[in-house]
Specification:
Layout: H1 2-27, H2 47-53, H3 63-86, E1 92-94, E2 99-103, H4 107-115, E3 120-123, E4 126-129, H5 136-152, H6 156-167, H7 173-189
Parallel strand pairs: 2-4
Antiparallel strand pairs: 1-2, 3-4
Length: about 200
């Protein structure tokens, strides 16, 4: 009984991911990221959606916190590193953002990003980018997802898929938080482009 329920939940979660990807694809007009106005009004977020939309966790401050975050997010990070290597990328540690950055991914990873109109995504502590990550806002956006993975660990993946089925991309609470975090990081960097330490 429990085994059947687990399989049903897994397939339902993957189905939610397909629905979310289709919703995101419909929102995209061209790869530059311009989006269409939604055909229907966005769903009203509940308390969890509202809380997640403003949730920009800071990096862990202590050595113990950093170690715990690395371990908790390690299943996602392992998948991210595997995807990076299979995609022909070379992950490099980016100390300022506390994550691996892989630029110029190819193959299925690049195709998946292109299909949903994305330039980059984060899987655990790994940021995968189709091109480069010269844009400070892009890396700052993905770094918020890295911090979210440090807090939610493997739970981030199913949560993200279920929320994407409900909200699409533009109104996805986790994406709204990443956009908020990127705006704050760019504003804090100011005209020099350097983040405060």
């Amino acid at each position: 009984m429990i085994r059947r329920l687990s399989w049903a939940l897994l397939f339902a979660t993957l189905g939610a991911g397909v629905v979310g990807a289709a919703r995101q694809r419909r929102e995209i007009v061209h790869p530059g990221g311009a989006t269409r106005p939604p055909a229907t009004p966005p769903p009203t977020p509940g308390p969890v959606g509202r809380a997640l939309a403003g949730w920009v966790p800071p990096p862990p401050r202590t050595a113990t916190g950093r170690a715990a975050a690395l371990v908790w997010a390690s299943p996602l990070t392992a998948v991210g590193l595997l995807v990076a290597f299979v995609s022909g990328g070379r992950p490099r540690w980016h100390p300022e953002y506390g994550c691996f950055v892989t630029e110029g991914v190819r193959g299925p990873s690049a195709l998946a990003l292109r299909l949903v109109g994305a330039e980059a995504n984060a899987i655990g502590h790994v940021v995968l980018s189709r091109h480069g990550t010269n844009a400070a806002a892009l890396l700052a956006h993905e770094a918020v997802h890295v911090r979210q993975a440090e807090r939610l660990g493997p739970l981030l993946f199913p949560l993200y898929l279920w929320l994407s089925a409900r909200y699409g991309y533009r109104h996805h609470p986790i994406e709204q938080a990443a956009r908020l975090g990127a705006r704050r990081a760019v504003e804090a960097a100011g005209p020099t482009g350097r983040r405060p330490v």
